[in-house]
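Data card: per-record layout.
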Amino acid sequence: MSTTGRPTPTADTRTTTRGHRLTQSPLNIRGAVDLSALAPAKHQERLKEQTTNEDGVQIIPGPLVRDVTVEALQEFLELSLHVPLVIVFRSDRSQGSLELARTLTDLVRDLNGTIGLGIVDADNAPEIVQAFQIQALPTTVAVLGGNPVPLFQGTAAPEDASKALDSVLQAAQQLGVLGRLDGDENGRLPEPELPPHVKEARAALDRGDLEAAHAAYTKAIKENPGDDESKLALSQVELFQRITDRDPQEVLQAASTAPLTDVDAHLLAADVEVMARMPESAFARLLDVIRTVSGDERDRARLRLIDLFGIVGIHDPVVSEARKQLASALM
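The structure for this 331-residue chain is written out next.
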């Protein structure tokens, strides 16, 4: 029996990284689109400035029509922060869905980049179907500013589909999503130009040098204390540093028999759980510690919990609930 009252969890610590850079999947574990996975607002603002021409028109490299896979979904959602998009869910088993995809393809190409179309093969991307909570095929969804909006379900005549696209463009106008795609079949949403220290940190991460990345992000924050992106990246680097060369199963096994007063054991276990995409377990663990200890030890657990909130994503419902529990635990 665990002295913490929880069974030992099994950790799957496979994560998506670029070098050592932690990236989040836009599909969360509850089967919904996780907007907290998208790049921060400042990142998007820099990208908008970078891609706006002398006439004030934002031109984004990329095809007018593309297949959307699980691997490409995050980039597609980020594109919707700049260009209005539509997704049609199709299947080879549904002739109507294939016809609708062809109709939308023709209509979107006629709009000359003012709207983009993503085609999801529902049979080969069930994760996306689940994330968008698709109930029938075909289904068409608009994506504006990272937010999926149901458009229509079932087939549609070309004139009706055209009216639906017009409504998307009108909504995009009101939301200020006014970018255009240039039609380049090989084009991709570009990375924004970064400050020198951030470039240095990214390069260090790509070669796996966590110490150099830590130093570079620290410099970036010192130069710009309001750089929230670098603060988050620094927290991610520190998380990697804490668990590097640690065996996740050994860490969790040790914590399962450690008393809640063994703060170090539970801090490390919470790190492993977050990396294993088990934030609920990590937060519950640290909240138990906070309720049990006091003084400096309690403050250490509180600060680590807040740090992990930022890594998981402040808009994640799990974080919102844990914040409420933290406030209650501190009273």
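Known properties of this structure: Residues 158-175 form the longest helix (18 residues). The chain is about 50% helix and 10% strand.

See the next section for split statistics.
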